[in-house]
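Structure representation:
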Amino acid sequence: MLENLVTTAANNSSDAVADVQHSSMIHRYRWGIAVLVSLGFFMAFPPFYVVSLHDAQEQLVAKAFNAKTYVEEFWQVRLLGAVEQAIDIVELKTALQEDSAATVERLGHRLGLGSLTAYFLVRGLGVVTSVEDGIVGIALQDGGRSEVVIDTGPVFGNAIREASGLLNISEFANGQDFNALSSELNRRVEEMVLPRLANIGVGRTVRFAGAVELPDISEVPVALRLVPVVIEFL
């Protein structure tokens, strides 16, 4: 009988060991499945990507704002169309003399409500009356004095950007990009428009269009300073 008890105990022990081994195998199997599923998930949907410095730099360049490309399209598609509908400069001068504040509200653009500087998009026809020290004077009436002046030197400021009324800072990622537009517009004037005035002589009839900036709307000068977008000789 003792032998039977020993045998039974041995069998029970073997069964217990087998059960533990089986349970351990199942446990390892389940963990293996879980690991494989996790690996598959992270391979399909990685929590992060490793990108080389060169590739990262190329991505940043691709996303960077390209003022030159933007201005090329803006100039051809929008700005040239806008200047065709711009106010005649004679009408603008008359309106400013009558009521400058009302004229700014009706025809002009300002950077902010509190700004005294106003910008206008204009067009006109006149006769060159003077060319001196890089300044071209244009009379709007036969035999009249110069009422429009064009500086053929470097162009600064935001006259074209603001006078167009077509560009808003809210449309751009930051102020740096918005300011880059002015720089590129000015560069385009310097390289493509002003050279047409290089050899101009007194007495030539010229059709022009562009931007006028008034630093102080309460003081309207006799001669308006024009940043030209279009210069044509007749």
Q: What stands out?
A: Helices lie at 2-44, 53-63, 67-84, 89-98, 100-107, 159-164, 175-193. The chain has two domains: 2-48, 67-233.
